Amino acid sequence: MDFYTSVQCIGNNILYRGIQGGKRIKSRIKYTPSLFLPSKKVTHHTNLQGEYLDEKVFGSIRDARDYVKGFENVDGAPKIYGQTKYDYAWIAERHPEPVEYDQSKIQIALLDIEVGSENGFPDPYDAVEPITAITIQSLDGTPTTFGCGEYGAKDGEYYVHCQNEHSLLKKFLSIWTKSYPDIVTGWNSKFFDIPYLFNRIKKVLSEEEAKSLSPWGYISERKAYSGSQQLVAYEI
Q1: Which pTM value belongs to this model?
Q2: b vs e for 89-127, b when ≥16 Cβ sit within 10 Å of the residue's Cβ?
Q3: Which fold has domain 107-235?
Q4: pLDDT tens column, 115-124
């Protein structure tokens, strides 16, 4: 059973993660998308009204975007058909049939961090207080906690004692990057744990190591809402 777990369009590439032949795969694919234009002759393509369309294949995603942008606000411009969300277009071509998932092969990580709060609850985007503990657990696995203090782990727990915050972050990343999860979940992880981790790792280690939270070394920002408050979410 083959299926995808993540498809992202970055630049001219499709960043693909999924299961193929029972094995996890990760691939950066150059994509040559197609768009469609009205045709005066009989073709193999039509719009929803049954009108014939010519397929126009582009050398790259950027070429297709530039072509569409070139007709913006142009009087008499031809109507352009096709999916301009190119990750969706690629999925439709690669997986034309309904996708069946094997949930046992999807890696879900529960993430929780603890941070210093002697000076009040810290802002995740400033990340001025040290991270004192990180716990990560798969849904069916043993929770692993990285911390600097002494702790007597109970049955069903695994504790990694670290000398300092620098060591803690290094050890956490060594585990994280060996087996990137498909899904990350937790209590407010979107607006606290992930932003705090990213910004704190940048401060203590480096921006390059902070970007290694992503399997592609690429992290983007987007505005999102928590209730009525507009915040920044990091896409890893």
Answers
A1: 0.86
A2: bbbeebeeeeeeeeeeeeeebbbbbebeeeeeebebeeb
A3: Nucleotidyltransferase; domain 5 (3.30.420)
A4: 998 888 899 9
